[in-house]
Design brief:
This protein has 523 residues and is of the alpha/beta class. It has helices spanning 2-27, 29-34, 57-65, 69-76, 119-137, 151-162, 186-207, 215-225, 240-245, 249-255, 310-325, 370-381, 397-403, 415-428, 439-446, 464-473, 508-519; strands spanning 36-44, 54-55, 86-93, 96-106, 111-112, 117-118, 142-146, 177-181, 233-238, 263-270, 280-284, 286-290, 330-340, 351-354, 360-363, 388-393, 408-412, 432-435, 453-454, 481-485, 491-492, 502-503. Helices cover 39% and strands 22% of the residues. The strands form five sheets. Strands 9, 10, 11, 12, 13, 16, 17, 18 and 20 form a nine-stranded mixed beta sheet that branches. Strands 1, 2, 3, 4, 7 and 8 form a six-stranded mixed beta sheet that branches. Strands 14-15-19 form a three-stranded mixed beta sheet.
Length: 523
């Protein structure tokens, strides 16, 4: 009987509260027309702890301004909000017709050694994203966001979570503007917005159809994005004649089958006050559509190969972000851009081509083209005497089999470089994982019948990601070089809660954080 009475009382109170709120909401139509919302955070109680809610500082102040009405509603409207879950209340505040409460989990997380990320930051991103999307679905067009103890992560969650590629659709999602609520850390918020905008730029480029993003339009898009930073940025869009002059035979062999002309995009960001500072070199594979060439891919999911320029997209987006952040570092970005298509002019399996450094390559599989594109770019990049080289590529399906979408693979002999990349990934939550680069794999690409190297390992699929990395190593002489294979993290289904389904733009934020770390260290 006691349980039934309690249930009836709770239902009566809830009905009264909702009715009162809807009356207030309809009485204040002006506020609804503004479609303004608020996202606030709440923590779970620690294990064995019962009693009062653990609201964030901003939420507690908001609740106090309402004489405890928010906490009352949270208590009567259902169970405690779990991590990443959200709930909306209407009409409880004159300035915010819609208030979304989001669950942040327990307030005792921090860096998790097992997961290799900062769990607190990830929870904030996940929770804020959920709250912002919920309000977007209600067609709220202006949202203020609780920092939830980490303004940068909150901004990342909001901006990444709201992104949707609908440029080519007639019916689009409601556009939402976000701003910080109840915190003095505006610098952290703005930094988070820039990090997320960078990743969204990469997502935009990767998601766009291949007939919209060709090598030429890709280069033009990046030039347009960097137009605001001309005093620190120099851009060269190298045409086919220049590529031929540089004797980039490996790169050119991939371009032969397409009617779209290749572009070698070269970006110089001079952010360091010391103009003589050795640059960080970022190289991104830029195959704007990969059919496989004569070694044609199966047709199912071939459309996803519009994002095979994910390496170039993330590299260029990270440089745009570095320029926006005014990072005190010199960065050179190289993006060899082309299509890999079949035709009567295309490279044939068994053909032998010569790379910029003079090494000959037997091309036994034209669908292993990314390493050919990168080989010449890496050779050219050494002319700048970089302090470190990081190349990024959606290189092998094998790495998707090995790691899935949990982390981007890092192949490097430099412990120092690995530590910097790993440290950056822990902060961003966009993880990396170190893979082997043994001579065992090198022998599989150097044991070649017709040339110095074969573009596939002699045991075919076995260790495919590792043999691809070993192939690239043959074009590197710098001591600090890392190859990031990002094929496994190219797209998102539902693995990363704060990214919608589609191309992910990963690991742009990790590259930016890595560059920021180098900018503020002396080595």
């Amino acid at each position: 009987m006691k349980t039934v009475d309690m249930f009836l009382l709770r239902r009566t109170v809830r009905t009264s509260v909702w009715t009162n709120h809807f009356r207030r909401l309809s009485a204040s139509q002006t506020h609804w027309n503004e479609r303004k919302g608020l996202v606030l955070g709440v923590f779970e109680n620690k294990e064995g702890e019962e009693g009062s809610l653990h609201l964030t500082e901003a939420a507690a102040r908001f609740d106090q301004s309402l004489s405890g009405k928010l906490s009352e509603l949270l208590n009567i409207s259902g169970p405690v909000l779990k991590k990443g879950k959200s709930r909306v209340f209407y009409g409880i505040h004159k300035d915010f017709p819609c208030v979304a409460m989001v669950g942040l989990g327990k307030n005792d997380a921090g860096v998790c050694g097992l997961e290799n990320w900062d769990a607190t930051k990830e929870r904030v991103r996940q929770a804020v994203s959920a709250g912002c999307r919920l309000l977007q679905d209600l067609e709220v067009n202006r949202v203020e966001v609780d920092a939830c103890g980490d303004a940068q992560s909150a901004a990342e969650g909001a901006v990444l979570g709201l992104f949707q590629y609908d440029q080519l659709k007639s019916k689009k999602k409601s556009k939402v503007t976000t701003q910080l609520y109840g915190s003095a850390d505006s610098a952290g918020w703005e930094k988070g917005v820039l990090y997320a905008d960078g990743q969204n730029l990469a997502r935009l480029l990767m998601e766009a159809p291949a007939n919209h993003i060709t090598p030429t339009t890709f280069a033009d898009s990046i030039e347009e994005r960097l137009a605001a930073f001309t005093e620190r940025v120099t851009i060269h869009k190298r045409a086919q004649a220049w590529i031929e002059d540089q004797q980039m035979g490996a790169f050119l062999s991939v371009t032969k089958g397409s009617d779209e002309p290749p572009v070698f995009l070269e970006i110089h960001y001079n952010g360091s006050p010391d103009s003589t500072q050795a640059p960080l070199l970022l190289v991104g594979k830029g195959v704007t559509f990969d059919s496989g060439g004569i070694s044609l891919k199966p047709s199912p999911s071939m459309d996803a190969m519009r994002a095979d320029m994910g390496g170039a997209a993330t590299v260029c987006a990270s440089i745009v972000t570095a320029a926006a952040l005014k990072l005190p570092i010199n960065i050179i970005g190289l993006a060899p851009l082309c299509e890999n298509m079949p035709s009567g002019k295309a490279t044939k399996p068994g053909d032998v081509v010569r790379a910029r450094n003079g090494k000959t390559i037997q091309v036994d599989n034209t669908d292993a083209e990314g390493r050919l594109v990168l080989a010449d770019a890496l050779c050219y990049g050494h002319t700048f005497n970089p302090r470190a080289i990081v190349n990024v590529a959606t290189l092998t399906g094998a790495i998707d089999v090995a790691l899935g979408s949990a982390a981007a693979a890092v192949f490097t002999h430099s412990d120092w470089l690995w530590e910097q990349l790993h440290k950056a990934s822990v902060v961003t939550g966009d993880r990396v994982w170190r893979m082997p680069l043994f001579q065992h794999y090198t022998r599989q690409v150097t044991d070649c019948q017709l040339a110095d190297l074969n573009n596939i390992g002699k045991y075919s699929r076995s260790g495919g990601a590792c043999t691809a990395a070993a192939f690239l190593r043959e074009f590197v002489t710098a001591p600090h070089w890392a190859h990031l294979d990002i094929a496994g993290v190219m797209s998102n289904k539902d693995e990363v809660p704060y990214l919608r389904k589609g191309m992910s733009g990963r690991p742009t934020r990790t590259l930016v954080e890595f560059a920021a770390g180098l900018a503020h260290m002396t080595k």
